[in-house]
Design goal:
The complex is a heterotrimer of chains A (about 180), B (about 280) and C (about 800). In chain A, helix 2 packs antiparallel against helix 5. Helix content of chain A is about 30%, strand content about 15%. With about 280 residues, chain B is of the alpha+beta class. In chain B, the strands form four sheets. Chain B has a five-stranded antiparallel beta sheet. In chain B, strands 11-12-13-14 form a four-stranded antiparallel beta sheet, with helices on both faces. In chain B, strand 4 and strand 5 form a beta hairpin. Chain B is globular. Chain C contains 20 helices and 33 strands. In chain C, helix 18 crosses helix 19. Chain C has about 800 residues and is of the alpha+beta class. The two termini of chain C are about 45 Å apart. Classes of the chains: A alpha+beta (about 180), B alpha+beta (about 280), C alpha+beta (about 800). The complex binds FE2/S2 (inorganic) cluster (2 copies).
């Protein structure tokens, strides 16, 4: 007989006495100032604190990319970033992609190439792709695959997603002169 | 996550070391890609998190002719992947860095973090080991340097003492005629921990260095095998021999990722491929 | 690529419309259950059993109860509710014993997730670990019973057959012809074992349920990431002893299902917690670990196939024994097992055949439906066996299959006669075999030559078939209502979890009503109070049954419009036609009315009105299905077969064992393409999931039956880097006469037989027959090293799913 509390988990965890930290950052162009618990992840800050539910969680461990956002120009998985680490950061989430009431080309191409089914992975893919195209407007197929393979999708088989990004590159070059 | 910690972001090294020394259950945060998972799974109980990204020493990433390469503890893996110097002079490090985890993770994960996590299967140590990397450690007793091959003491264990942190890792100069390569096998093409990872280097004097991961409790530098290879002279025959001999120098286990038998076989195949690629480049 | 070339004969059906829910999904506005917050909502966490089988000696929740913010704590002592789809075998919370290492032992509802998690960590449980039932062989011995009370378990009588004092949740059978005689008289008899491990569905949104259960009445309100709102309603009513109408089920957007969200999962636990917390809504969300180790999976399976054939290549007899490792509970597992008895010989015409399919309890993660519903598993066995037979007979595997595939006039396993309207398996096979340029198997010399280069290529192919596995009286319905602007509001009871149902059904409506698809209003979100009944969103039945319901409703709506228009235009409604949103008289085309003018009734110039708001409905029930005979398995279980075939070309690195998939050609007799873009998506997605099962995925348990890979760190799914170099979709259109515009479903099919085709290609490349999945780099290398020509699970110590 033994007294097992499962999974090596649940060793005694001492509460150091929640001490909130004031955090100020820019999300989708808006200045945000909030007091946060230092152990809160950036993902939960975005969802629970400033109520942007577009960014999803599917693993919480940096393995799936569903929570990908753009932080200071880089795609990062927000589930394994602490909110407090984003002090002063510029953040873009899926809600920040459409501007002036118009979908971005990337979003339009995700629709027309059918790059989504259940749509749960879609915000993460959009942000990974956006960060890539912002830093490299004309990536090779190989570069696209390298960057997007950090995002998991169980529905589409990825081919339509790759097609959507390739179409976006063409159109952005033509229409935005990138 | 059950941990409820305080967050401290010091701006100089002394402050950081003092804080780490003073507070029990304090953990160093750089990229957080490993730490956050340990916290989430409640494997560790953190009361204090010390974010070292604002320390001037940890942001250093520079190559100096004659001295070599210095990578600060806050330097993320993708910076190394994108570095021209690393790509041309420390090829194995470039390749190992480019194969680590996923692109987004590499935007956060740091080179030094990959060392400090001390995972037996980490990708970067084999490449760093073949370049005789040295770890710069700061602690309450001052600073010290430890060669990377002495840094690991067991699965997820290192020589770091309470209050110490790794500030940077240094790689001696690698010049003309220095060649290296990193190859890995994983369960799929997408991001995965290496089933086995092998780095090999041929120095300008023709001497070989070999680093290997996921075949022992720690990443290994195979000094004894290197001596034997060097004694025989690097050739097609030596390579065939070494590919068999390497099995005597490693102690892989069976775990959820792979059986010991497959790891043995992959160590052999990857070492052979590494060395063949290096002598092919000679031509 | 075939995809750009497809041309439909219809104006709207077959066209490549964008999916209706896409805009909300690319802007982050689509709301999933995980995103929902309700006033006063509490958050739950579960304590799972750490043992595969253990006695719960005591539970102490006092420390957890004392934690501020905790609102309810439940253990097995607090509830004796049993749930189950076909077998009521699962307690919401374990009582007395735990049956797998994911059984819920205690649950907490608290003001936030952190508090709930902390409370869980403060619960002390004393267990007495018991020896678990490890595998199907041990289970069949029956020395330890997973369910001691198996003889008393309430179940669906006459369809499922639990065996007394055993671990067999159901033993389903079918047989026809004279097996013994055929085996005795045939030129060749070959017997083989094939196996594959449990595989997880991995929807990107994990299971989430929110329930608000009024403690003062019978009302239960559910919001859930689920595929089967009406099944949840019915099972909840059954289990909680309330009326179906007391239960309301809301389905917001669902982040993937693949069968794993069919049936009922976290809803009962959330209900109990909500009641215990005074009726506040409680959200239960599975973490990714729980998704792997608590929620159900695809069953592991072993198939024993014995086949007889004559020298000329005619298969004379087939005996199949399928043993399903269903884990601790039956869930959909028994129905998967049942399906195998009518589909488990593949799409072949075989006179003498017999199938025994046993769904077996063990102390592992329990099983449920997964895309393909057992067909990936049975076809892994059958299509490998067919390939091996053709090797032994020295007949080309394409020719061999063509000699034995079903054609009009032939009978299926259950005795159903195939007709021209059933679709054409031979056409599918021929198309894919041509696409990959099959010219026959490699010779041993060719293999040896290529082997020296370190990389060997191989080609292979496999057949597939599937019909929806559903009760004989499966039904669905559609309600259409016209808005004042002439748009049609359409309501269905089935869930669109990404398969594109609402778009496809809108296209059928737009086609039948001849109006723009943009004017069909339909929501992916379901509310059982307002949406009409649908049995279950599973089994690829929606295009077929739902499509027929849409056609019916459209015709009723048109009829009603014509009746009103006939009055206005002063003619017999029979004389009127419709086109482009208008009703008109073909002889005097200027006698016309737009739909809009009669949507809410027609108003004469003097203000008086006729007709009133237009509403129509369409109800369908599966046509001509019967339950199977319990002993012979004869009957008519299949409303619609969809046949198909995959052919692949691969390259194997003989030193590392890595398999590169160069090309996949996939053909399905879909009857009629509804939306080429959506089908293409189903094929790409299904093929990649199939490749996951073929090359990579599978549960690994340690010797104590603890799941060793309950996270993405070690339970990998294919990434973008793992896509095949090329996928060629081929649509065969032999219409089904009772299908909507001739269409058949194809949601699950792209996944089936992908592993079989890969396994056959591995044989072509290496000359080694693998009988186990996955064909991981490790399995391939250890298989080669073993020096054997047939690799069983005992030959490679990494397989299947065993450490
Ligand atoms: S939720 Fe952040 S990577 Fe999966
Ligand atoms: S669309 Fe469902 S996971 Fe990608």
């Amino acid at each position: 007989m033994d007294n097992n509390k499962d999974c090596s988990m649940y060793t005694e965890h001492v509460d150091s006495g929640k001490r909130k930290v004031t955090l100020s950052l820019t999300v989708n162009g808006h200045q945000v100032v909030r007091d946060v618990d230092p152990s809160m992840s950036l993902l939960h800050f975005l969802r629970d604190n400033i109520k942007l539910f577009g960014t999803k969680e599917a693993c919480g461990e940096g393995e799936c990319g569903a929570c990908t956002i753009i932080m200071n120009g880089k795609a990062v998985t927000s589930c394994i970033v602490l909110a407090v680490e984003a002090e002063g950061a510029q953040i873009t989430t899926v809600e920040g992609l459409a501007k002036d009431g118009k979908l971005s080309i990337l979003q339009e191409e995700f629709i027309s190439e059918d790059a989504l089914q259940c749509g749960y992975c879609t915000p993460g893919f959009l942000m990974s792709a956006r960060a890539l195209l912002d830093s490299n407007p004309n990536p090779s197929d190989e570069e696209i695959v390298e960057v997007l393979s950090g995002n998991l999708c169980r529905c589409t088989g990825y081919i339509p997603i790759l097609n959507a990004v390739k179409r976006t590159i063409e159109r952005e070059q033509k229409e935005l002169g990138r | 996550m059950l941990s409820r910690f305080q967050y401290f972001k010091p701006h100089n090294l002394n402050e950081a070391v003092q804080y780490l020394d003073k507070e029990a259950n304090s953990f160093v945060l750089a990229g957080g890609t490993d730490l956050m998972i340990l916290l989430r799974r409640n494997v560790i109980n953190a009361e204090h998190i010390v974010d070292i990204k604002a320390l001037p020493e940890t942001g250093v990433f520079e190559y100096t002719e004659g001295t070599g390469l210095k990578i600060g503890a806050a330097v993320v893996v993708n910076r190394v992947v994108d570095s021209e110097v690393v790509n041309s002079r420390y090829r194995a490090l470039h390749q190992a860095a480019a194969s680590l985890a996923s692109f987004q993770l590499r935007n956060r994960a740091t080179v030094v973090g990959n060392i400090c996590n001390a995972s037996p299967g980490a990708d970067l140590p084999p490449a760093l080991l073949v370049y005789d990397a040295v770890v710069n450690i700061a602690g309450p007793q001052g600073t010290r340097q430890v060669p990377l091959h002495q840094f690991f003491t067991g699965v997820k264990r290192t020589v770091l003492q309470h209050g110490e942190l790794v500030v940077s890792v240094e790689l001696p100069e690698s010049g003309e005629g220095d060649k290296s390569i990193y190859l890995r096998q994983a369960r799929l093409r997408g991001h995965d921990l290496a089933t086995v990872g092998v780095a090999a280097r041929v120095k300008p004097d023709g001497k070989v260095a070999i680093g290997i991961a996921a075949v022992a409790p720690t990443p290994l530098r195979l000094f004894a095998l290197e001596d034997q290879i060097n004694a025989r002279g690097l050739s097609q025959e030596t390579i065939e021999w070494a590919a068999e001999e390497v099995k005597e120098h490693i102690h892989p286990i069976t775990d959820v990722r792979s059986s010991a038998a497959y790891r043995l076989q992959m160590a052999s195949v990857l070492l052979k491929r590494c060395l063949l690629a290096l002598i092919a480049k000679e031509d | 690529m075939a995809k750009a070339e497809y041309k439909s004969k219809y104006k709207r059906v077959g066209q490549r419309y964008d999916r209706k829910d896409a805009r909300e999904k690319v802007t982050g506005q689509a709301v999933y259950t995980y995103d929902l917050e309700l006033p006063g909502m509490l958050y739950a966490r579960c304590l799972l059993s750490p043992y595969a089988r253990a006695k719960i000696v005591s539970i102490d929740t006092s420390k957890a109860k004392a934690l501020p913010g905790v609102r309810a704590i439940l253990t097995g002592e607090d509830s004796d509710i049993l749930v189950g789809l076909y077998m009521q075998d699962k307690r919401v919370l374990s009582r007395g014993v735990t049956r797998y290492q994911g059984d819920v032992v205690a649950a907490v509802a608290a003001e936030d997730e952190e508090t709930a998690e902390r409370a869980i960590s403060l619960i002390d449980v004393v267990y007495e670990p018991l020896e678990p039932v490890h595998d199907v062989d041990e289970a069949l011995e029956g020395k330890i019973l997973v369910h001691e009370d198996i003889n008393e378990l309430k179940h669906y009588v006459g369809v499922f057959f639990p065996q007394k004092d055993s671990n067999i949740a159901s033993w389903n059978k079918s047989k026809k012809g004279d097996l013994e005689k055929a085996f005795a008289e045939s030129d060749l008899v070959v017997e083989n074992d094939f196996s594959l491990p449990a595989v997880a569905h991995v929807p990107m949104e994990t299971h989430v349920s929110i329930v608000q259960a009024d403690p003062f009445s019978n009302k239960i309100k559910i919001w859930s990431s689920a595929q089967s709102p009406f099944a949840i309603r019915q099972i909840m009513a059954d289990s909680f002893g309330v009326s179906e109408s007391d239960v309301e089920v809301h389905i917001p957007y669902v982040g993937g299902g693949f069968g794993g969200k069919a049936g009922i999962h976290l809803e009962p636990l959330a209900t109990l917690l909500s009641k215990a917390a005074g009726g506040l809504p409680v959200k239960v969300r599975a973490t990714r670990e729980q998704e792997f180790n608590q929620l159900p999976t695809r069953a592991g399976m072993r198939g024993r196939i014995k086949t007889a054939a004559n020298k000329d290549g005619k298969i004379t007899a087939m005996q199949a024994v399928y043993d399903w490792d269903s884990g601790a509970y039956a869930d959909y597992g028994v129905n998967v097992g049942k399906t195998a008895v009518y589909s488990g010989i593949g799409p072949y015409s075989i006179e003498n055949a017999c199938i025994d399919s046993k769904t077996i309890y063990t102390n592992k993660v329990f099983s449920t439906a997964y895309r393909g519903f057992g067909h990936l598993e049975t076809h892994w066995s059958i299509e490998r066996q067919i390939d091996i037979l053709s090797q032994k007979l020295g007949i080309d595997p394409y020719e061999f299959r063509m000699m034995n595939l079903l054609e009009p006039g032939d009978k299926t396993m259950s005795g159903e006669v195939i007709t021209e309207s059933s679709g054409n398996p031979k056409e599918c096979l021929t198309a894919v075999v041509k696409e990959i340029g099959w010219t026959g198997r490699k010779t041993e010399e060719e293999r040896q030559r290529e082997w020296k280069t370190g990389k060997v290529r191989g080609k292979g192919f496999a057949m597939l078939q599937k019909a929806p596995a559903m009760p004989a009286n499966t039904a669905t319905s559609v309600v259409m209502q016209m808005n004042g602007d002439g748009h049609v509001k359409m309501m269905i009871g089935a869930v669109d979890m990404g398969q594109g149902a609402i778009t496809a059904l809108s296209q059928i409506a737009a086609q039948e009503l001849d109006m723009p698809i943009e004017d069909i209003e339909i929501s992916a979100q379901i509310d059982t109070r307002s949406n009409p009944y649908d049995w279950n969103t599973v089994a690829s039945k929606l295009t077929f049954l739902g499509g027929n319901a849409v056609v019916k409703a459209s015709h009723e709506l048109l009829h009603k419009m014509k009746v009103i228009a006939g009055q206005v235009l002063r003619t017999d409604p029979e004389n009127l036609l419709h086109a482009n949103g208008e009703i008109y008289h073909p002889h005097n085309p200027n006698r016309r009315l737009s739909y809009k003018d009669i949507a809410l009734g027609y108003m004469y110039p003097d203000g008086s009105g006729i007709g009133g708001p237009l509403i129509a409905s369409g109800s369908v029930v599966a046509d001509g299905l019967t339950n199977l005979h319990p002993e012979t398995g004869q009957g008519n279980p299949a409303a619609v077969w969809t046949f198909g075939a995959h052919a692949v070309e691969i390259e194997v690195d003989v030193e590392t064992g890595s398999v590169t998939v160069l090309k996949v050609a996939s053909a399905f007799d879909v009857g009629q393409v509804i939306n080429e873009k959506l089908i293409y998506g189903q094929i790409c997605g299904g093929v990649l999931q199939g490749l996951g099962s073929a090359l990579l995925e599978g549960y690994k348990f340690n010797k104590d039956e603890k799941l060793m890979n309950p996270s993405f760190t070690d339970n990998k799914i294919p990434t973008m880097k793992d896509m095949p170099v090329e996928i060629v979709p081929i649509y065969i259109e032999n219409p089904q006469h009772n299908g909507p515009l001739g269409a058949r479903g194809v949601g699950e099919h792209p996944m089936i037989s992908v592993p079989s085709a890969i396994g056959n290609a591995v044989y072509d490349a290496l000359g080694i027959n693998f009988h186990v999945l996955p064909l991981s780099p490790e399995a391939i290398v250890l298989g080669i090293q073993s020096g054997k020509k047939s690799i069983l699970c005992t030959d490679v110590d990494c397989l299947p799913g065993r450490l």
